[in-house]
Amino acid sequence: MAAMLMARLVSTVLTATVMVGGATLALAAGDAASGKKVFKKCKQCHTLEVGKTKIGPSLAGVVGRRPGTVEGFKYSQAMIDFGAAGNVWDEATLDVYLTKPRNLVKKTKMAFPGLKKESDRADLIAYLAQF
Ligand code: HEC
Question: Which of 39, 51, 92, 131 has its Cβ near the most Cβ atoms within 10 Å?
Fold first, then answer.
């Protein structure tokens, strides 16, 4: 009897831990709805429509893409080299780039100072991942 009680207690504690873990993950993954607002800062230069170029390349499908590879866009040599070196725009790389673009790709021609707030970056990346 005591053993059964103990087993039930352990399983309750385990479930609670897993739920907390899930909540933490959801937070770290960012909130796409808020990210849509952050994207206003990018709209001047980027669209989320395939093939539609402004000052910067289309960001449709950017999450998971190799840097510098949108056909027809004239990237800086720095961005082409960054992609050729085997990098991928995954969440981690985008987070570093969007914090301060020149810190990651020194001679990028993207004239954007960066997003200081970690939550803004996470939200924005979650939003970008939808396109
Ligand atoms: C003033 C215009 C401008 C603004 C604002 C801007 N970008 Fe850019 N972005 C560019 C240009 C130009 C490039 C190409 C950079 C290069 O070739 O070095 C670029 C490149 C990129 C790339 C690499 C794309 C690829 O295909 O490899 C990403 C990712 C990106 N921008 C994200 C963003 C996000 C997200 C924002 C908003 C927070 C933003 N940019 C704001 C002009 C801008």
Answer: 39
Residue nearest to atom 1 of ligand 1 (CA): 111
| 129 touches ligand 1 (CB under 6 Å) | no
Q: What's the mean per-residue pLDDT of the chain?
A: 87
How many CB atoms are located within 10 Å of the residue 46 CB? 22
* Residue 42 Cβ < 6 Å to ligand 1: yes
Q: Where are the domains positioned within the chain?
A: 1-30, 31-128
- What is the average per-residue pLDDT within 104-120? 98
CA distance 43 to 22: 32
Q: What is the pTM of this model?
A: 0.84
Protein fold of 31-128: Cytochrome Bc1 Complex; Chain D, domain 2 (1.10.760)
Give the number of other CB atoms < 10 A from CB of residue 33.
Answer: 10
